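Retry 2 of 3 after timeout on previous attempt. Resubmitting structure tokens to design endpoint.
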């Protein structure tokens, strides 16, 4: 009884013959049991009131129970023989036929008026039930799969008690309507209703039993027990030989003793304590058994596919409390007072229900354990012996009840008190046997009210044998959740400074925690490792948090080598575990502190994912990569229950309905309520006056502004896909995008179209004119919805609750630097997962305000500038021109901006034009799109006091893939969260790796290769281009096309672009490295507005395959001087362009985003060097 697991061999496979809870056989078994139990109780409670006038209440109740119970003792061996020797289905059907005959005999005995014959019939009914029981319970594990046993037994318990309750009520009412008397029996017509009910139920039950599938005999060669006593003794010895099974059988027997006494006592309690008539006893009996049904279901649900014996002591405690409450209630009834009787009657119903619930919690785990732990070959005998013990206790109960009432003259209330007091030592004994399981169950129940726990991959835990669980470490509760979710005991490895605390020491000792302390020297450390190894070798589960400490940043820290020392040589597997979503809870370090913060949600979601066993891990980095991959799976799993951006937008706007949410440089400022009002109004107007019902893709031509935000939000909550068109492209490229996305309508404004006239192949809608069509009614309706209507009602009305998270949020067209723009399809899940990861790292709060200077046709502008403030309790302000440094400075100062994203080129503008006073509120500046020179970063820090860091992303990654966390947002100074010269580490739930561009094999840390990214931020694909999608997304990994190195801490350094390499003489020559060197040579540090002066590309070459070409603007330094400086840098000869490979141009072609227009640069080079190429 000290085990709480369902143990199976690792090679065990699901038996195809075994079914689920809705299989025909199991449903037929339930139906058979339902009608059988109902008929048993209906017949017995029809007979008891008949016998009461003849022999008295106590004797009638006790004798009826004894006659029904005695056959279980006398026929235990025969019942076990039948259940093992023959098909259990055959036994069940035969018992049901016997039930029909017994019911007919019972009616005949009433007609004869023979009391003794009636009790003989009750005994025959007991014989039928005794033979039926082992076959019924033994068939459950043969019909159901192992992981359905707990719930299957719960349902069987439910069916039994519900049918028993109906039988109690029906039996009493049959007596009330027919009033049969043994002294003056009437004609058959007087009891015809009873005869029809009893025989009819038996016949229907027999028919249903035929639907149970044929079951193979467990032991077809077993001999008949001609010596029942010897056979019973053998069964008893078999049960006694297993201490856990014997203790469990004692627990089950104790339950049935209490249940029998309570059942008899309720009859006396209702009549003598509450003053009820016989027919009114039914509800009291019914509520008791309905409570047992509820407890049975609850036990099945709480067990969650396992056998949770820790629930048993909880049930025992409930029995004690409710029994004593019934004692006090019954003793408090004022005789003759109708109001008092009614009040205490209602109170008694409550206590009886809770007594039943507690009893169900007590019994079901024991019954399930008994079934599962008994071997198939001896299961019938084991269950027969257990039944023998249970019914022996029931027989004792009948005698004890008679003695209590007749000899000791105890009232029904006092009997309830005795039952409660008897349960106290039983509960204490069980707790002493199962302290771990009991505490585990209590903690589990408490945690379920605070946390919403989801477990995936539980089947990957080995059913037996040792293993090392390796998990990430997010919060103080990680270990507790792992103990709760494992079906087997887990020994945690923890720092001794934590587990030796006097408040938790007893608990950690109870759970056999393995203390470890690196400060005690190598000997103590090795002793802890040896303890862990020994535990694994002994077949135990051990868990280590391989990072060595709680994360202070949300990042997965590098795994320590200790895990390899523990597992190496044991032959046991490593089970990777990923704990998701606890970062941000009060027990994590989110926000820079533990505990002292309000929970962000209630109940707080927690996901735990167990990965497939790693049989031979190469090293700790191998294990870490597997755990990281589980993190990606966990993040992807979130989409099954997380809200999509439009739903979160509605809620966050309502949270700030009276506080500023967005603003722009034109002076427009809107609260959350006004933003939502505007979005709802725009949605209403567009649906009414512009869009066709099936119109999905909508073009938007607006700068980053309040208007742009509201339009994008209105389209999102309409279930449409906003496509922000790149207005820096040529008219032909814009129309190419419109055609590709099948855009029929483009939304813009009169002011914008006047500044940027574009001839578009679509219906152009001027929003200025559309606003004029809004009526007072339209505005009032939207205002009412935004400020007063609950968010969930709005979602249902506009149809957001059924939107698939994998549906498109937007399509963003690339800038076309290497050809025609490609449409990148980003889903709702792409967007929300990217924002979640950014929030995990940046620790966003309500005081944060982001400055949006990047256009919404840029993926960073769309995800981070637009949707991140919409999905978080923060503010945003916008300015359409990132080069307008003076206005940017004023915006930062006015709205107390705390963070913004920029390019290094734009930072130079801010450095020259903005003052430290304007930027004093800033504490986070992230750059991207081009390399951040460290000299620029230091200069920026010296002036503004904030060190800008680099991040990395692409449109296809929604866009953020990696980022450096600056000291201003770093919660733990001991954690490495930024490295100059790198673009940071992959964000949470995202993985990065480098591969050999030729073989596509993974490369070790530090080696340069193609950068691949995997995570929930990877795009759905390219619009209308499955072939290109398949080229860049391989098994979930996105080929960024960038060359990079990844160091041992996971920091990524971009070394070049695949398309910006030339293969010269068989070697890869990086354009970017040459560009950086020449730029350093020719740049003037005193120049007010530094511009792009050079660009490196390549053209075909007949001798070496390709040749380098340098495009440059007119400058004050000669080509020869540049080449001399390049040679001083000691570059490989193939990297040095020849003197005739320099091409002077008026300007370096750039895209609207400020990036190099590589296609145009290549075109200029090919035109200039075409004759040289052909020659």
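Retry 2 succeeded. Sequence:
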């Amino acid at each position: 009884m000290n085990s709480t697991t369902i143990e199976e061999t690792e090679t065990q496979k699901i038996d195809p013959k075994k079914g689920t809870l809705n299989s025909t056989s199991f449903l037929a078994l339930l139906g058979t049991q339902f009608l059988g139990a109902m008929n048993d109780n209906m017949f017995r409670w029809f007979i008891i009131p008949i016998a009461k006038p003849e022999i008295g209440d106590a004797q009638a109740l006790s004798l009826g129970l004894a006659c029904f119970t005695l056959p279980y003792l006398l026929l235990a061996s025969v019942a076990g023989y039948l259940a093992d020797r023959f098909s259990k289905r055959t036994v069940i059907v035969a018992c049901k036929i016997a039930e029909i005959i017994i019911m007919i005999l019972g009616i005949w005995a009433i007609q004869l008026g023979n009391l003794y014959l009636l009790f003989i019939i009750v005994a025959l009914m007991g014989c039928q039930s005794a033979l039926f029981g082992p076959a019924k319970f033994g068939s459950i594990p043969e019909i159901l799969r192992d992981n359905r046993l707990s719930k299957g037994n719960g349902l069987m318990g439910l069916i039994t008690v519900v049918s028993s309750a109906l039988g109690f009520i029906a039996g009493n009412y049959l007596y009330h309507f027919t009033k049969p008397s043994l002294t003056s029996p009437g004609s058959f017509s007087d009891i015809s209703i009873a005869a029809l009910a009893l025989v009819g139920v038996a016949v229907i039950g027999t028919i249903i039993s035929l639907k149970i599938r044929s079951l193979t005999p467990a032991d077809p060669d077993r001999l008949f027990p001609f010596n029942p006593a010897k056979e019973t003794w053998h069964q008893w010895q078999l049960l006694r030989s297993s201490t856990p099974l014997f203790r469990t059988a004692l627990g089950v027997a104790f339950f049935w003793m209490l249940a029998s006494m309570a059942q008899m006592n309720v009859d006396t309690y209702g009549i003598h304590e509450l003053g009820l008539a016989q027919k009114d006893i039914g509800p009291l009996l019914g509520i008791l058994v309905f409570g047992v049904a509820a407890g049975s279901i609850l036990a099945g649900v709480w067990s969650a596919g396992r056998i949770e014996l820790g629930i048993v002591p909880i049930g025992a405690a409930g029995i004690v409390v409710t029994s004593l409450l019934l004692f006090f209630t019954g003793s408090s009834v004022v005789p003759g007072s109708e109001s008092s009787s009614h009040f205490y009657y209602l109170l008694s119903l409550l206590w009886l229900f809770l007594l039943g619930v507690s009893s169900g919690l007590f019994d079901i785990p024991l019954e399930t354990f008994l079934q599962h732990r008994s071997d198939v070959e001896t299961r019938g005998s084991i269950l027969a012996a257990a039944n023998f013990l249970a019914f022996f206790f029931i027989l004792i109960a009948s005698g004890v009840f008679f003695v209590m009432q007749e000899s000791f003259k105890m009232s029904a209330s006092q009997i309830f008190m005795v039952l409660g007091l008897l349960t106290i030592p039983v509960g204490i004994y069980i707790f002493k046997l199962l302290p771990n399981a009991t505490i585990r169950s209590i903690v589990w129940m408490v945690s379920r009210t605070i946390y919403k726990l989801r477990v995936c991959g539980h089947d990957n835990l080995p059913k037996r044998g040792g293993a090392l669980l390796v998990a990430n470490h997010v919060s103080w509760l990680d270990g507790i959740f792992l103990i709760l979710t494992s079906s087997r005991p887990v020994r945690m490895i923890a720092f001794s400074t934590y587990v030796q605390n006097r408040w938790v020491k007893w608990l950690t000792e109870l759970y056999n925690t393995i203390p470890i302390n690196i400060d005690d020297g190598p000997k103590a450390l090795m002793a802890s490792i040896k303890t862990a190894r020994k535990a694994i070798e002994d077949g135990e589960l051990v868990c280590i948090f391989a990072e060595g400490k709680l994360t202070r940043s949300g990042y997965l820290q590098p795994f320590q080598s200790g895990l390899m020392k523990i597992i190496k040589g044991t032959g046991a597997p490593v089970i990777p575990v990923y704990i998701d979503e606890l970062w941000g809870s009060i027990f994590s370090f989110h926000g820079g502190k533990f505990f002292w913060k309000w929970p962000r949600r209630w109940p707080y979601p927690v996901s735990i994912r167990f990965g497939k066993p790693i049989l031979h891990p190469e090293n700790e980095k191998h294990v870490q990569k597997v755990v990281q991959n589980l993190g990606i799976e966990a993040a992807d799993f979130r989409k099954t229950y997380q809200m999509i951006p439009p739903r979160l937008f509605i809620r966050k706007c309502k949270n700030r309905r009276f506080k500023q949410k967005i603003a722009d440089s034109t002076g427009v400022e809107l609260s959350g309520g006004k933003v939502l009002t505007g979005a709802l109004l725009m949605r209403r107007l567009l649906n009414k006056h512009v869009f066709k019902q099936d119109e999905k893709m909508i073009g938007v031509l607006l700068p980053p502004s309040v208007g742009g935000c509201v339009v994008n939000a209105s389209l999102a909550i309409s279930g449409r896909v906003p496509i922000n068109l790149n207005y820096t492209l040529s008219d032909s490229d814009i129309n190419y995008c419109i055609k590709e996305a099948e855009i029929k309508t483009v939304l813009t404004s009169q002011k914008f179209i006047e500044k940027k006239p574009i001839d578009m192949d679509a219906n152009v809608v001027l929003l200025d004119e559309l606003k004029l069509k809004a009526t007072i009614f339209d505005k009032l309706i939207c205002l009412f919805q935004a400020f007063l209507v609950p968010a969930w009602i709005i979602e249902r009305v506009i149809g957001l609750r059924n939107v698939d998270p994998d549906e498109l949020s937007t399509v963003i067209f690339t800038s076309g630097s290497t050809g025609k723009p490609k449409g990148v399809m980003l889903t709702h899940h792409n967007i929300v997962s990217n924002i979640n990861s950014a929030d995990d790292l940046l620790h966003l709060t309500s005081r944060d305000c982001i400055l949006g200077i990047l256009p919404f046709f840029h993926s960073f502008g769309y995800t981070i500038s637009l949707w991140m403030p919409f999905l978080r309790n923060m503010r945003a302000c916008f300015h359409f021109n990132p080069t307008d440094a003076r206005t940017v400075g004023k915006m930062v100062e006015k709205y107390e901006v705390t963070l913004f994203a920029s390019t290094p080129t734009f930072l130079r503008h801010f450095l020259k034009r903005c003052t430290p006073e304007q930027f004093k509120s800033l504490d986070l500046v992230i750059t991207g799109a081009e390399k951040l020179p460290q000299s620029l970063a230091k200069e920026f820090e010296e002036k503004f006091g904030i060190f800008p860091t680099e991040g990395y992303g692409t449109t296809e990654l929604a866009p953020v893939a990696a980022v450096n966390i600056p000291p201003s947002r770093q919660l733990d100074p001991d954690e490495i969260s930024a490295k100059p010269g790198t673009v940071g580490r992959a964000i949470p739930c995202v993985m990065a790796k480098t591969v050999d561009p030729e073989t596509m094999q993974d490369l070790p840390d530090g080696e340069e290769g193609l950068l691949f990214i995997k995570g929930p931020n990877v795009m759905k694909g390219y619009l209308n281009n499955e072939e290109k999608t398949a080229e860049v997304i391989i098994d979930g990994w996105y080929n960024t096309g960038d060359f990079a190195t990844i160091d041992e801490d996971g920091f990524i350094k971009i070394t070049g672009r695949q398309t910006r390499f030339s293969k010269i003489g068989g070697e890869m020559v990086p354009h970017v490295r040459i560009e950086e060197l020449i730029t350093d040579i020719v740049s003037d540090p005193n120049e007010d507005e530094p511009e792009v002066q050079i660009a490196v590309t390549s053209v075909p070459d007949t001798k070496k395959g390709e040749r380098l070409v340098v495009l440059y603007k007119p400058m004050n330094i000669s080509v020869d001087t540049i080449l001399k400086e390049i040679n001083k840098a000691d570059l490989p000869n193939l990297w040095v362009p020849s003197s005739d490979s320099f091409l002077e141009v008026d300007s370096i072609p750039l895209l609207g985003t400020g990036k190099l227009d590589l296609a145009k640069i290549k075109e200029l080079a090919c035109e200039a060097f075409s004759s040289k190429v052909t020659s």
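Attempt log closed. Residues 438-608 form a domain with the Glycerol-3-phosphate (1)-acyltransferase fold (CATH 3.40.1130.10).
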